[in-house]
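Good morning C.,

I know you're traveling, so I'll keep this short. The sequence:
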Amino acid sequence: MHPRVKPALRRAWRDRQSVQFGLTSAHAVLVGPVDTATGSMIELLDGTRSIPLLRTEGRAMGLPDGQVDTLVSRLTAAGLIDDVTAGGPGADALRERAGELDRLRPDLASLTVVHPEPGGGARRLAARRAARVQVRGAGRVGATVASLLSASGVGRVDVLDGGRVEAWDVAPGGVPAESVGARRDTAARQAVRRAAPGRPPRQGPREGSRESECAGEPGLSLVVVTPRDGLEAYAPDPASSRAWIGSGIPHLYAGVVEATGVVGPLVLPGGSACAGCLERVRAELDPGWPRMLAQWRSGRRVGVPACDVALATAVSGLASAHALAFLDGELPSSTGARWEVSLPLLEWRAQQFAAHRECVCGAGGRGEGDTPSGNLKAHDTMAG
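The tokens, ready to paste straight into the viewer:
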């Protein structure tokens, strides 16, 4: 072990006998009592020394036998120690790619703060590299999401969409102006490659091939649904997710409709509310909703959909952060919920969605004695 005090956490003496690691309340840890000699030893925990060498340094500083081990154990238990050699074979392989790792060092530093165990950040960064995400939609939101995931170390990001890039598809972080007229999927994949910190792992089926486009194919860690028409993000068609539900593939919705951005829900098939649950519940709360939805889905759209570039970028960032949290092994707050933000006030608000008992996804399996309307109260945030 080569222990290192996590450098992402700012360190300061709160008083003469206590040290605070971390600035923000979410991650700050107070350690004390700490004497001057122990404080000096903390400075040596920079990842360049093994435990035996640290013991030697400690004896030279006059520390009692065992105090170095006690200090390292104490700081490790507080989530303040990383091990620059830990993380498993995937992390070791990443360390050998110095250029790629340098691009990802800020992401690694963040992961070490969020995941307290030594080597936890490196292990998750290596896992991202082995992940495969499919982004469906290459407009202002989708292309930016794909680029952000690639830049964050996700090893394979496939982008599916049709048509050609229009001038209004261009956005910072997404497809550039010089891509206007090119195939949307090709332009978005080029943006993904430009954003990638290094060469991706060896890939399977060619992107865009018939095998790659199969919605339920194995190997997908996550599908991010980012339709250029935000209606399909706000009120997704259950038919489009049927294959993902059947194959157990998690999927996350994100987009902009009119002047409102939405992120979520993240659907865990069989475990959280799906598009079918949302549609059933909304129809029970608002009998007129199915009729209007059918008109919106079938009607020919005239003009360019509203999609404020700053709002689209904010939605892309939040959706990418939720996707990464899921890939890192967490359940973000979009699981079974949707975050909404509208211009001009830009106040984020969450809507919780309970799974519907009658939905074929099975997430809301009806209990004995329940009635189909028994959970309506839990859904009432969807109204209006």
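Safe travels,
E.
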